[in-house]
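EI: anyone free to look at a 181-residue chain?
SC: sure, send it
EI:
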Amino acid sequence: MSFSIPTLETSRLILRAPCEADFPAEAEFFASDASRFVGGPKHPDETWRALAMMLGHWMLRGYGFWGVESRETGTYLGHVGLWSPEGWPEPEIGWTLMNDATGNGYATEAAMAARSYAYDVLQWPTAISLIDPANTASQAVARRLGAAFETTFEHSAFGTMHVWRHPAPDALVNGGMEAYA
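SC: here you go
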C-alpha cells in the first residue's frame, strides 16, 4: 500500500512529510523539560519511534502531523497537524514546536493551515485541541485560533487534559481557506 502526504505552504512555512532528518531536532526537544506537556522527556529511541508513529498515523488515518520548516531558511521548526489515535476523544489539531522556534507565531500559522486542510479537504465538521491545563503557551495558541475551552478529558497516560473546541468551518472567514498562501 502506498500513500502520499500533501505539502501545504503558508507565507512563512512549509508543512511537509515528516522525515528522518527531523529526528535530531525532535530528540533534542524531547530530551528537554519543555517536552513535559507532550509526553516527554523521552529517550532518543522513544523519540525515533514517535516519529515513525507520526508517519504510521498518515497510513492508518489518511492524515497526521506535518514536519514544519521555515520557507526562508529550511530550518526544521516542529510538527503540526491532525491527530486521532485510538483512545482520543475526537480528531485533534495539534502543535509541537522545537525550543528555538517558539514565540514567532509559527504554531498559529501552521495550525491554521492544518485546520484549513481538515475542514476544506477532509470535510471535518469540527475539531478539538487537547491541551495540558498547565500549558499556557498552547492555550494562547488555541485562543488565537479562535478555539475555546469546552471540557476536560481523562487521558490514560497524560491525566486530565483540557478540550479546546475550534470554530466550525462555516464560522471561519472564506470557509477556512484563510491559512493557504
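EI: The chain has one domain: 8-179.
SC: 👍
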